[in-house]
Each structure stands twice: as structure tokens, then as C-alpha cells.
Specification:
Blueprint (H helix, E strand, L loop, with lengths): L1 H32 L5 H36 L7 H24 L1 H8 L5 H14 L2 H17 L4 H5 L1 H19 L11 H23 L20 H29 L8 H35 L6 H25 L1 H6 L8 H12 L2 H16 L4 H26 L8 H24 L9 H27 L11 H25 L4 H13 L2
Helix pairs in contact: 1-8, 1-11, 1-20, 2-3, 2-5, 2-6, 2-10, 2-11, 3-6, 4-5, 5-9, 6-9, 8-9, 10-16, 11-12, 11-14, 11-15, 12-15, 12-18, 12-19, 12-20, 14-17, 15-17, 16-17, 18-19
Length: 536
């Protein structure tokens, strides 16, 4: 526990710092291109999603879920796994280069696929951005490959700290843009080739440099890497079988994402795709700091336990990780929910977009805890090298999310839902699908381990949920006392950040107090983890 806590703290601290600088990056980007009501921002957002979406389609599930157990096993080889990892990195690089070239050739078709109701000028701007942003696919893939090898070798820090480099490069580049051109430029016709190159080129340069940073720490893995095209005999057929189901799971997720994107882009000019991007950014901040840092270290240990045949340790691992994620998750849900309006104001160029964006944020936020728990459950299946079962519950979630988006679009068409709330409805239905997905996943996990032992885990989560209720109420009361949606917390972006911090802090204080009154034992564990993160 001490080693896991220390590793989680390192990852959490790195993720916290990188996410904090990422927020600054986003703030500068809003100053360049706007957010709420900006059709130029919607064009950039769609283009920026392409490399990440294609990367998820090609590699993410395979790299993060399947290769770690294989690398852990390879460590038992006489060379410590150097030959296996060499073949793996060589194969991954070849696939990523080919995929990047293909996607750049298909850029116009991809933009057409993800958008609906846009005119030729807006699509043209999105395509121009895509040519500058799609090379990120190569660097995203290499970053994930190198990072997961580092994690599998228990070198946890660099992977979580490296994104800070990307953020700093982007902040500097976007700052240069503001000095040269000014901003924000929200109209599609405002953009020329030089402006597009500076903004898109800066974004891609940051991703490339964050990948290079990982190489500086490679010596810690004690692996000797060289190009190796002899891919036979390294278990590609076995990995391919595992990867096939993971690939299918990502495919259905991406198909659902395309449906959602085509629905939401119909509202371009109001709360549309860019608003969803920034709402998701806020949502992912606590998830990345808590869920990703905890699950990464627990997953490495879980893979080792399963590989060694110590199956009696699986359920205790799940119990510890789920409790840790949920303890923080419920607190952040209450705090961010209460502060949703001022926090949203930080990412809008005027106060008009704060409330519509807050609705989108809250639509995502209600699924923060199940989203984190599902991450743990999915990785438990991967530790057992079972990728077929996660496809089943991923398909359920994707189908429900896509259906929800279609229903929301129909509600707008029939006049039952204002167009301004279309994005919020899509976010809300996606969250509801997670609540269906979680019990299905838990039931299917019984094939590998006895999940009845998790009953005490769910009782602990019940205590956290009870404590979150007065926490949210206290934060919302503070928000109303300082003026509510028309008060000073939404009058300015800086004041929005200050107001959001004030409201969120009030919620967290009450949450901790409520947990103490409920005599929650996990509170002491969380305190030790936070002290490690702060270095005290």
C-alpha cells in the first residue's frame, strides 16, 4: 500500500500540474478563437478531435489495456524484455506512420463525417486545421507506447508529467498568436493561412515534444532498444486476438461519438461542440488526477497478481481502488456541480455562455464516479486478458449514448427542447448510459472473481454519496449568496475562477466534515495520499 500510495501520489501530482497548465492553455486558446457561439472554434474543435479519435480507434485500448500485462510477462525473459519491447515499438511505429499518412489523405472525408449542417466555408476551415493537427496521431501513439512501457517497468512519473511540456509550448505559441494577430477571431472568414498554420502548428509541436521528453527517462527502464522487424514469434497472434475485441469496443464507441458529433454540430453558433469540449475538460480534470493515477498503479499490481496466479488478491485490489476513486469522486462531483456556472464562465468570452455551458458540464458530471469505477472494472478484465467481455458492456453504453443523442435531436426538431440545450441533453444521456453499463460490467466480472465480496465497497460508496449531498447544498448556497447566475462570479473570467474556487472550497470543507461525522475510515487514507502529493 505504501509503494502504491507513493506511486499514485507521483502520478497524481504530475497529472495535477499538467492539467493545471492544460487549463491555462485552454484559457489562452479561448482568447484566440472563442468558445460559446464561435463557429471558428467549432471548426478547430472538430479538427482537433480527429487525431485523438483515430488514435483511440487504432491503438489506445490495445496499448493501455493489453500490452502492460504482456510487458510484465516479458520482464521474466533473460534479457529483461528488451527484445520484446524492441519488436513492439518497431511495429507500433510502422503502424502509426502508415495510419497518420492515410488519415491526412482522408481529412476532407473525416470532416464531412463528423459534421452536419455546416456550410462549405466552415468545413473548409476545419479541413485546413485538420491538415496541421492530424500529424498528432503519430506522436499520440508513440507517447502512449513509450509511456505504458515506462509504467509497466514501474517508472510512473514521466508519463504523467510530460504533458506539461505540451501545455507550456502551446501557451507560448498561442501567446505569440495573440501578440501578432490579437483575438478572439470567432468568425470563419477571419482566418487566413498564416493564422491557421501558427495555431495548428503550435498545437502539434507541443504533442511532439511531450513524446520526446519520455525518451530522456528511458534509461530507468534498463531496456536496450533497437529497431527490430522480426515480429514473428512474439505472440502477435495472441495479442491480436485480444486486440480484436478491444478494437471493436473502440469502434462502437467512435460510431456513437460520430452520431453525437453530427447531432451537436447542428447547434454550431450556440452551445455546440466547443462547449462540450471544455465541459469535458473540466469533467476530466478530477478523473485524470484521481482515477487515472490510482488505476494506473493498481493495474500494474493487478496484472502481476494475475500473472503469478494470486487470484485471491484480485477482489481486495478492486475494493481498495474503487474506494479511493469514489472517495474523491463524490467530493469533486459536489464541488464542481455547485461551482459549475462560475467555472464555465472561465471558458467563455462573455457571461451569456456560462449557464448553457454549466448545463453541459453537469450533464457529464453526474457520471464522474461510475466513470472512474468503470475504468477499474475494465482494467480488471484486461488483467485477466479478457477483452471480449468489455466489448459487450461497451457496446451497451455506446448504443444507449447514440440513441440518447438521436432522441435529443428529435426533441429539438419537434420543438420539445431548445437548440441551446441540445449539447446538454447529449451529455446527460451519455451519463445515463454509464449507469446502465456499470451493473452490467460488474455482473460479467463474476466470471473471473467473486464480486459479492465488494458489498462492503458499495456501502462505503453510499456513505460518500450521503456526505456529498450537504456538500453540494453548502456550495450552492455560497454561490447564491454571491449573486448566483447574475452575480460577480460570472461577470469576468478571472472572477469566475475566483468564485468557482470559493464555492468549490466551501463544498469540499462540508464534504470532509460530513465524512468525519460519518466516521469514514477512508478519510485518513486520503489524507496520507494528499500529504504525499504535496510532499509533506
Amino acid at each position: 500500500m505504501a509503494n502504491l500510495g507513493r506511486a499514485s501520489a507521483i502520478i497524481g501530482a504530475g497529472t495535477l500540474f499538467s492539467r493545471a497548465t492544460g487549463l491555462v492553455r485552454s484559457l489562452v486558446l479561448v482568447a484566440v478563437i472563442g468558445s460559446y457561439g464561435s463557429k471558428a472554434a467549432d471548426a478547430f474543435s472538430i479538427a482537433a478531435q480527429l487525431p485523438t479519435n483515430v488514435y483511440e480507434l487504432l491503438a489506445a485500448g490495445v496499448i493501455t489495456g493489453i500490452l502492460v500485462p504482456q510487458i510484465v510477462k516479458a520482464a521474466a525473459h533473460s534479457d529483461g524484455g528488451s527484445r520484446y519491447v524492441s519488436k513492439l515499438l518497431t511495429l507500433g511505429s510502422v503502424v502509426l506512420v502508415a495510419a497518420t499518412a492515410l488519415m491526412m489523405a482522408l481529412a476532407p472525408a473525416l470532416i464531412w463525417l463528423y459534421t452536419d449542417g455546416w456550410n462549405g466555408t466552415q468545413k473548409g476551415l476545419a479541413i485546413a486545421f485538420a491538415y496541421w493537427l492530424l500529424p498528432q496521431l503519430l506522436f499520440y501513439g508513440l507517447f502512449a507506447l513509450l509511456g505504458e512501457v515506462l509504467n509497466a517497468r514501474k517508472v510512473f512519473g514521466p508519463y504523467s508529467w510530460a504533458p506539461t511540456v505540451n501545455n507550456l509550448v502551446s501557451i507560448a505559441g498561442f501567446g505569440v498568436f495573440l501578440l501578432v494577430y490579437g483575438g478572439p477571431f470567432t468568425t470563419v472568414t477571419d482566418w487566413d493561412a498564416g493564422m491557421i498554420a501558427l495555431l495548428g502548428g503550435t498545437a502539434t509541436l507541443g504533442i511532439a515534444l511531450q513524446t520526446f521528453v519520455l525518451l530522456l527517462f528511458w534509461k530507468r527502464t534498463r531496456l536496450h532498444i533497437r529497431p527490430d522487424f522480426g515480429w514473428r514469434g512474439i505472440g502477435l497472434r495472441h495479442v491480436g486476438t485480444l486486440a480484436w475485441w478491444t478494437f471493436l469496443a473502440v469502434v462502437v464507441g467512435q460510431l456513437a461519438g460520430i452520431v453525437q458529433s453530427r447531432v451537436v454540430t447542428q447547434a454550431s453558433g450556440e452551445a455546440s461542440v466547443t462547449v462540450m469540449v471544455y465541459a469535458w475538460l473540466i469533467f476530466m480534470l478530477p478523473h485524470s488526477i484521481v482515477a487515472m493515477s490510482i488505476s494506473t498503479t493498481y493495474f500494474t499490481r493487478l496484472a502481476e497478481e494475475v500473472a503469478a496466479g494470486r487470484l485471491d488478491r484480485v477482489t481486495p485490489n478492486l475494493d481498495e481502488s474503487i474506494r479511493a476513486i469514489a472517495l474523491f469522486g463524490f467530493g469533486f462531483t459536489a464541488a464542481i456541480g455547485a461551482a459549475s456556472v462560475p467555472l464555465s464562465r472561465v471558458f467563455t468570452t462573455d457571461s451569456d455562455g456560462a449557464v448553457p455551458m454549466a448545463w453541459v458540464l453537469c450533464g457529464y458530471l453526474i457520471a464522474l464516479v461510475p466513470f472512474g469505477v468503470l475504468l477499474i472494472i475494465r482494467r480488471a478484465f484486461f488483467a485477466f486478458q479478457d477483452t471480449r467481455t468489455p466489448f459487450v458492456f461497451s457496446f451497451v453504453q455506446a448504443a444507449l449514448a447514440a440513441l440518447g443523442a438521436v432522441v435529443a435531436a428529435a426533441a429539438v426538431a419537434w420543438g420539445l427542447l431548445p437548440l441551446a440545450f441540445l449539447a446538454a441533453a447529449v451529455a446527460f444521456t451519455q451519463s445515463l448510459s454509464a449507469y446502465v453499463q456499470l451493473p452490467v460490467a460488474l455482473r460479467l466480472l463474476r466470471r473471473h472473481t467473486d464480486t459479492t465480496a465488494l458489498r462492503t465497497t458499495w456501502r462505503a460508496l453510499g456513505r460518500f454519496a450521503i456526505a456529498a449531498v450537504p456538500a453540494f447544498a453548502a456550495g450552492w448556497a455560497v454561490f447564491l449568496l454571491v449573486g448566483g447566475p447574475t452575480g460577480w462570479t460570472v461577470s469576468d473570467r478571472l472572477l469566475g475562477a475566483i468564485g468557482g474556487g470559493l464555492v468549490g472550497a466551501a463544498s469540499l470543507v462540508v464534504y470532509i466534515a460530513a465524512l468525519a461525522l460519518l466516521r469514514t475510515p477512508e478519510l485518513a487514507i486520503a489524507g496520507r495520499l494528499l500529504r504525499r502529493i504535496t510532499g509533506r
